[in-house]
Design a protein that fits this description.
This protein is an all-beta fold and 171 residues long. It contains no helices and 14 strands.
């Protein structure tokens, strides 16, 4: 009978979106092996957790140090600034002699410093413009040019724009 041992590593990160609420499955993340091949891919949960499928190890892996790259898969959606941070995930499986393995997972930042958990932060800002047209229709009289002006107010009542003009044209 051949001795077999198995173990697994769970890679977990966090995702934050500044500028609006984060949605489940909004951002993609990947783990790459030392050759650059994709090993796992996942998306964020609505609460910001990023959980990958388990990495499995066996007899031949005991005592071997595996190094993976963990990163967000950047997209090109308008209004987003994506986090381009890459983390190194160091995994060392060790045979416990009873058919199980202890698997140590360590995360290193870009400066090769250990961090408790990888964290990715994206920023969202919506740049929008609007064209607002207004005109005056006075019944029973005539209006001279520049006799009226219009103010655009924000939600607190502050004037954020003012315009007057020729009433024969839209303002």
């Amino acid at each position: 009978q051949q001795y077999r041992t198995v173990g697994s590593a769970q890679v977990i990160a966090t995702k934050e979106l500044v500028g609006r609420a984060l949605k489940a499955n909004e951002f993609r993340f990947e783990i790459l092996d030392s050759t650059g091949a994709q090993v796992r891919v996942t998306t964020n949960q609505g609460n910001g957790r990023v959980v990958f499928g388990r990495l499995m190890y066996g007899n031949a892996d005991t005592g071997v140090e595996y190094r993976y790259t963990l990163r967000e898969v950047a997209a090109t959606a308008a209004g987003y600034a994506y986090d381009d941070t890459e983390y190194t995930v160091v995994v060392v499986p060790v045979d416990q002699g009873n058919g199980t393995m202890s698997v140590t997972v360590t995360y290193l930042d870009g400066n090769n410093q250990e961090v408790p958990s990888p964290a990715f932060v994206n920023r969202y800002s919506a740049d929008t413009t609007a064209t607002i047209a207004a005109w005056v229709d006075l019944t029973g009289g005539s209006i001279g040019d520049y006799e009226f002006s219009f103010e655009l107010l924000d939600e607190e009542g502050n004037v954020i724009g003012r315009k007057g003009g020729l009433l024969s044209k839209k303002i």
